[in-house]
Amino acid sequence: MISKYLGDRPFWKVLVRLALPVAIQNVLTSSFQLVDTLMVSNLGDVTLSAVGMAAQWGWLAAVLSFGLCSGMSVFVAQYWGVHDHKGIRRVLGMGLVTCLILSSVFLAVALAMPQGVVSLFNRDPEVIATGSRYLRIVCFSYPAVALTTILSAVLRNTERVKLPMYVSIVTTIANAFADYGLIFGKFGLPQLGVEGAAIATCISAWLGPVLIVLFSAFEKNLLMGPVRELGEFTLRQLGEFFSRALPVILNEGFWALGILVLNIIYSNEGYQYYAGMTIFRTFADLAFAFYVGLGNACVIMVGKSVGKGKIRRGVEDATRFTFLLPLAGVVIGGLTILFRYPLISIFSTGGNLSPVTLSTALWVTIFCSCEVAFRNIPYVQVVGVFRSGGDTLHGMLYDLGSLWLVSIPAALLAAYVFHWPFTAVVAAAYLGEDIPKCLLCLRHFFSMRWLKPVTPEGRAGLDAYRAEEAD
Questions:
Q1: Please, are residues 270 and 425 in contact by the beta-carbon 8 Å criterion?
Q2: Of the residues 187, 271, 307, 435, which has the maximum number of CB atoms within 10 A of its CB?
């Protein structure tokens, strides 16, 4: 009974091998924002808030890239299960073209009208001016982030999880040194303030795809197959790819757009409140890195089993992850609450942040740490289980329905009708999204209708599994 929910020895052996490097990589990736936030916080509330608002545009681009990767993972994990390397490279080629088009559009908009982007979040002239200076430089990092995301996703889904981690170590260290030097004028570099933070992000972001390609050439891994195989796809295969990937891209895109709407609501409550949210998100992203590691392991393990036709093993592993991620949320959330004062005090060392900013960060941290287990249940189902099983549609419906039909209206009512305190507005938004989505995802999981293999072996295995269950 315990192994049904906590896993057996083989399960944990594979889990640790796959999840730990991904978790470490995501911790390092999140450290980009941590380093920026720590150093920019020394420039005051206005600059911290402005950078946080401007960064939301890049975050939207990154979420779309993540959505594309999640759609690709439906194919890559299952193709990996049957050793179809050409199929993986074909999917990679389609993904690279798509991600470069998407990131270029975001770059062009940010470069052409940075004031317009920042003014979506706040109309304070000083905030708009500072955010625009940051955005018109940092936007050149968008294609690099997209490339790194796509290449890393293919490596992780083919169980080459350590290479992206090593690259993240190098880029994070480079980002820290470049931030310190260019913001404050150290190491003989000019003191550029907020523009220095943007330049540092661009430098470290472009190191990512360059190092992945160089290390891949040295390793001769799957990324280094014949270049022509990246473009060897037919219109039929392209249609099949987008039939699975497009719901995920739309899912992540409209979900991210909804989060932007919530951020606009938060930011219009006052830039000091939004600065507090920026602090909370910085170390919340570090905690979330561990959940991403577990979710990625779920995609690989469940997708590989489904692709091979080992449906029962895939269902067993999916059940274990459904239990483990909320449990991890309880543990990490509890530790965050326990150490909330030391965590938040890190950002107040420069003495430039207001009591309102620090108090907001404290209370949002407490609430979100208590609520994170509810957030992790639909996360593992939508990103880890449903997509690896081949079902990209239901997760999209549950994600977007809960956000747009419940969470956003709840936040609008709390902020503009009932005039609740800022933390209560955040609570209304979070609970409005997570509670209905939890119930819908668990219902769909136990129905087993998320099992939709894309390989012949998987489809044959599913028929055999259903026959067994019927007997």
A1: no
A2: 307
